[in-house]
Amino acid sequence: MRPSKRAPDAMRTVSLERNVTRYAEGSCLVKFGNTHVLCTASLEDKPPQWLRGQGKGWVTAEYAMLPRATHTRTRRETAKPSGRTQEIQRLIGRSLRAVTNLQALGERQITVDCDVIQADGGTRTASITGAWVALHDCLKWMRDRSMIKDMPLKDHVAAVSCGIYQGFPVLDLDYDEDSVAHTDGNFVITGTGGLVEVQATAEGAVFSEEELIKLLGLARKGVSELVLLQKQALGA
What we know:
There is one protein chain. The protein has helices spanning 83-97, 123-144, 175-178, 209-234, and strands spanning 14-18, 26-32, 35-44, 58-65, 109-118, 157-165, 168-171, 183-190, 195-202. By secondary structure, it is an alpha+beta fold. Helix 1 packs across helix 2 (123-144). The longest helix is centred in the C-terminal third of the chain and has 26 residues, at 209-234. The N and C termini lie far apart (36 Å).
């Protein structure tokens, strides 16, 4: 029995609330159960220095956890992001770029900030799922102002965690499961089923190819539900 009493293939309650901040070109408050992340997309009318003059844009991300997002206060990363933070924000950026036509952006950059308000496992997967909605609304804001002709998004993208908990594959781990899982994985998948990134790690006991395939099957189920929620949030 899972601590949350969920079935092995059941997600936590997920919500996606758009337009939650006044000034950002796109924003989304995403909730995976008790994990809450505020995603805001900001447009800058120039690309990174290293990309200037090439006629295309860039999508990047930054990730941070508020000091009391967890059970005890963590110090703000004001000087240099930790290795974990850098790894997560690079993952978010890669996931968004995988479904974005950067050429269609023109020489502009969009930065999606993912700030964890409350953490209960799966902060990176929630961030990716909400960041896509914030990015979509930023691009829509640009199209409505004739800055771009067509929507540069090629597909949806969402992410979910899976793991081996007490010997059984389970979907969407919360902290109680994630902290003791024998195997912990994060799966980033597009709306059409393409794999963007798979991160799976054994914690104390190795996992088999058969178990990995089972986890991937659970992830595909979870992402299909998340993409449906993204579509519903957009009114599509």
